[in-house]
Design goal:
With about 290 residues, the protein is an alpha/beta fold. The chain has 13 helices and 5 strands. Helix 4 links the parallel strand 2 and strand 3. The longest helix is centred in the C-terminal third of the chain and has 21 residues. The termini are far apart.
C-alpha cells in the first residue's frame, strides 16, 4: 500500500504527499483520530513516502524498494517505533528515543519516530520530549499518534503540525471541499464579509468541521497559486474542485500572488486559534477579516 491508495482524509493525504515530494518535512506531527482510523498504517505510509528511494511524482512511495519493505516489516534501522508500556509512555522511554535520535541515520538522512499512544505520556515524559521538539537534530521526524491531542501539553502541541483524521466516508469530508472552494473564490474576488460568512456557514457547525474546512481551504489556495505556474496540466489532471483549472488560474491571476499568500497566513492563524480553543465562529470570521 502507499498514500495514493488511501481514500479517506484526502486533504491531509495531499499535504503529506506534497511534503514527501518536496522534502519539506516538519520535525514533528500529531495524527489525531478515534480508534476507527488506522493511525499506525497511515504513519508508516507517510514515513515510506518520506524515505522512499524511488517515490512517485505525486509524492507517494513506490511501495517496492528495500526502504519501503523495511518500513512495512518494522525493521528499518532509522525508524524507531514506540508504544505505551502498561498505561503510559514513561520518561525512560522518551530518554531512549532521544539517545536514538542523537545518532546519525544509518541508511539515509533522517531519523524517524512513530509514537503510538502519545497522549498517554506522563507529564515528565512530555517535558523531556519538549527539549527534542525545541531543538531537533537535523533530519528528525517525530509522529505522535493520539486519540485526544488535548491530553498533550500545549507546549508540545504548539511545536507540532496537527492532523485531525476522520473515518472513511463522512459526509463532512465529502462536502467540505465544495464549501472551501466557494468561500475561497469569493474571498479572493473581494466579496463582502456577509457573503463570505454565508458561504462558509457549514464550517461553523463545530470544531471538527472548522478544522476540515481550514485544511480544504489551504489546499484550495495552494492549488490556486500553483495554477499560475502550472504548465504540465497537473492541476487539470487531478482537479478536485468545482472550478476548472482554467477558472482557478483566472481567479488567481485577477487576485495576484500576494493576497493568496496573505490568505494562507490567515488560514494558519485561524488554525492556531482553534488549537488555543478560541470559539470556532470567532476564529473563522476573524480569518476573513485579516
Amino acid at each position: 500500500m502507499s498514500l495514493r491508495e488511501i481514500r479517506e482524509n484526502e486533504q491531509i493525504l495531499q499535504r503529506m504527499k506534497e511534503a514527501a515530494r518536496t522534502q519539506v518535512v516538519s520535525h514533528a506531527y500529531i495524527l489525531e483520530s478515534d480508534a476507527s482510523v488506522d493511525k499506525v498504517r497511515l504513519a508508516k505510509e507517510f514515513v515510506k513516502a518520506i524515505l522512499c528511494e524511488d517515490r512517485e511524482m505525486d509524492g507517494s512511495s513506490c511501495d517496492a524498494c528495500i526502504t519501503c519493505q523495511k518500513v512495512d516489516h518494522d525493521n528499518h534501522e532509522d525508524v524507531f517505533l514506540m508504544a505505551a508500556e502498561g498505561n503510559s509512555i514513561k520518561d525512560e522511554a522518551v530518554e531512549e528515543m532521544q539517545r536514538r535520535l542523537a545518532n546519525r541515520p544509518n541508511a539515509g538522512s533522517r531519523n524517524v519516530v512513530i509514537m503510538e499512544d502519545a497522549d498517554t505520556m506522563t507529564l515528565r515524559a512530555q517535558n523531556r520530549l519538549l527539549k527534542t521538539l525545541e531543538e531537533p537534530a537535523p533530519g528528525t521526524v517525530i509522529l505522535l499518534l493520539s486519540e485526544n491531542a488535548e491530553h498533550l501539553a500545549q507546549t508540545v502541541r504548539s511545536r507540532c503540525i496537527l492532523y485531525r483524521l476522520h473515518s472513511l466516508g463522512t459526509e463532512l469530508e465529502e462536502n467540505i471541499k465544495l464549501v472551501a472552494a466557494e468561500t475561497g473564490e469569493q474571498w479572493l474576488n473581494g466579496e463582502p464579509f456577509y457573503k463570505l460568512v454565508k458561504a462558509m456557514e457549514p464550517a461553523l457547525a463545530d470544531k471538527a468541521a472548522a478544522v476540515e474546512f481550514l485544511d480544504a481551504m489551504e489546499l484550495w489556495l495552494r492549488d490556486a497559486m500553483i495554477s499560475l505556474y502550472d504548465q504540465s496540466g497537473a492541476i487539470a489532471a487531478g482537479n478536485r474542485w468545482p472550478q476548472s483549472a482554467r477558472e482557478m488560474k483566472e481567479i488567481a491571476r485577477r487576485c495576484g500572488k500576494e493576497p493568496i499568500y496573505q490568505a494562507i497566513e490567515a488560514v494558519e492563524e485561524a488554525r492556531q486559534d482553534l488549537e488555543r480553543n478560541i470559539n470556532t465562529g470567532y476564529a473563522l470570521k476573524g480569518m476573513l477579516l485579516r
